[in-house]
Amino acid sequence: MSFGFEQIAIAVSWLTLALAAAVIGANRGSSFLVWFAAGLFLGPLGVVLAFWEGRSCKSCRKLIPEKARKCPYCQTEAPFEEG
């Protein structure tokens, strides 16, 4: 069984999308591996969903990690907004 250029290009593109989703998700405070798996199974949709991950501070509106109890930018305490 030989793979053609198209199949290899599709596989590389799909892995690139999975890596992009993982990096975006990790930068927003979530697990790199979870978002890599989501990107691997969902492709472009995984990247779009990774952009919706995270919370923002109600005071300064900056994106903060999911596990943060205090905004690292303005030091505001919880609660925070989703998205």
What do you see in this structure?
The protein is mainly α and 83 residues long. It folds into two domains: 1-52, no CATH class; 54-83, no CATH class. It is built from three helices and three strands; from the N terminus they run αααβββ. It has helices at residues 5-27, 32-42, 44-51; strands at residues 55-56, 63-64, 81-82. The protein has a three-stranded antiparallel beta sheet with strand order 2-1-3, with no helix packed on it. A hairpin with a 6-residue loop joins strand 1 and strand 2 (63-64). Helix 1 runs antiparallel to helix 2, helix 1 packs parallel to helix 3 (44-51) and helix 2 (32-42) packs across helix 3. The protein starts with a helix and ends with a strand. 23% of the residues are buried.
Jot down its keywords.
about 80 residues; about 50% helix; mainly alpha; 2 domains; rod-shaped
Quickly describe the structure:
This protein has 83 residues and is mainly alpha-helical. The protein contains 3 helices and 3 strands, in the order αααβββ. Strands 2-1-3 form a 3-stranded antiparallel β-sheet, with no helix packed on it.
